[in-house]
Every structure is written in C-alpha cells, then in structure tokens.
Amino acid sequence: MVGINDVPKHPVEILKTDLESERPRALLPHSLSPDNTKNKYKEVSPVSVKPYKSKVSNQLSRAKYDNKMVAMLNDSLSVTLDNIKKIELGQLHPQTEFMQRPCLVSKWVDYSNKHGFAYQLSTGSIGVLFTEGHTVLKFHEGNDIYLIQPDETSGWKVDQFEREQIPNSLANEMQVIDFFDKYMTAHLSDVSNGTSNNQSGGIFLRRYTRDDNGIMFELSNGSYQFNFKDHHKIVISDYGYNITHITPNKEIETLPLEYVLKNQNFYETPDDYFTVKFNFMKHALREKLSI
C-alpha cells in the first residue's frame, strides 16, 4: 500500500492526446432542434463512467447502488421539470429575496478512458469522478477532502477527511486530483471568474452527459448546467426557479426563470438562440428522465 507521502511506483502520467477539455467548436444552431436529439446523448453512468468495460459481475453487484442513485436523479429531474411547467403556465412565481448565483462547473477535463472526469467548481473546489464510480472532492480553502461513494440507502455516502488523515487507500486518487488541479490551473480558463454566492458545502457532480451540442452537468444541489459549443453556458438552478447565463466574455446574469421567459431572453446578456436552447434544455431533461 502506498502512503500519501510515499513515492508511488507508478506516478500519474497523462498524455495531452488523451485529454478532452472544454475547447468548443462552432455551433450549428439548427442542430439544437429538440427533434434532433434522439439517441445522441452519451450518458455517463453515476456508478461506472465506462459501463461497457465493466465485468458483468461488477455490474450486478453495483445494480442496487445504481438504482438508488437513478431514483434520486429522477426525483430532481421531475421536480425541476414540474416547476418549469408551472412557471410557464403562470402558476408558480419567484421569491427573489432567495435568488443566488449558482455554484458552477467552471473548468473540466475528460480523461475517463483512464482515470475519470475532473472538474473545478466556481468556489475553487476540485473534484474527480473516477471511472470506478466514486468522487474525491478537494476544497479550495482548508485541507478537507470528501470521499463520495455509491450507497444503497442514501444513493451517495460522503466521508470527510482532513488532509493528514487521508487513508492510504486513497493515495492514488490524491495524486490524480492534485495533478488535475495543477493542469486546470495552468491550461484552462475560468468561465465563471471564480464567483458564486451559494454556500457550496459538499456540492459535487452527480452525472454528466455529452452530445453533439455540448455537455450537460447534473449537480447534487439540483442545478443543471449546459455548456454549448458557441461558448455560452446556461444553468437552470434551484429546481427550475432561476436561470443563469454565462457569455463567452464571462459576463454572468442570474434571474428568476419567470422574468426571462416573459422577456423571451435575458435582459443584460441576451443570447440570439435563447429560445432554441431553452427548448433543447427542456427536451434534454425530459429525455434524461425517461432513461
């Protein structure tokens, strides 16, 4: 067993050709049509990032955890979609005094063919969703580390450690997360300017989905972030009550969804394709719920 302060026998080595990070290509607006999303999603299982590589025995042994996690994911999706529908019908109104800028995924690197999916939150915390299904989250301030694992009862079980108390069994994970921390700091820009008003606590990435139009993040606080390939990001937060737009110039506007729908766009940071994208987002959420 390798200790956290020992020299590993096989140090983390990452090739640039294996990395896939957020470097968007040009957006084709017509490709955002909801009718064009069928069978285009590449879902990343919350238990196994690459389930087709797992042995059948491992899949069966993890099925009970997967079922609970999927149930929780579906509950969040159902509440969000129901709230969006009620807001569209004028049956639900915002409480603006509780509106906050959401916690965002500000950087990401997809290395799921070997280690996992690394990301940085707008609070500065770094997380890696490992291919085995667990997440390690390192906080920007302090030495706390969260180990988030599949759990039969609660869906996800969270264990908290101080840096000096990390078990030897997590030595490799710590090497990986430290590497990605340095890599993202050196090579990737921060789309959110590092600002977030939410108390992020133990917010982590539950699941991500990639398709031809971009990437969708499902966070543990009920936020859904869509990064489109034209460099625009839109976040549905607070289970559908609020919506945030991040422009390619890193301008951020957070408003109650009701206000944006009445205006048919954001006020200070309008997006020419907002209506198309919003319809796409709703369709994507419904499609995730039907899986």
From TrEMBL:
Pfam families hit by this protein: POLO_box (PF00659)
SUPFAM superfamilies: Polo-box domain
Gene3D superfamilies membership: POLO box domain
Superkingdom as given in the UniProt entry: Eukaryota
Record's protein name: Cell cycle serine/threonine-protein kinase CDC5/MSD2
POLO box domain boundaries: 104-186, 204-290
Annotated GO CC locations: cytoplasm; kinetochore; nucleus; spindle pole; spindle pole body
Assigned keywords, A-Z: ATP-binding, Kinase, Nucleotide-binding, Repeat, Serine/threonine-protein kinase, Transferase
GO molecular function annotation: ATP binding; protein serine/threonine kinase activity
PROSITE patterns noted in UniProt: POLO_BOX
CDD domains with a match to the protein in the record: POLO_box_1, POLO_box_2
GO biological process, one term: mitotic spindle organization
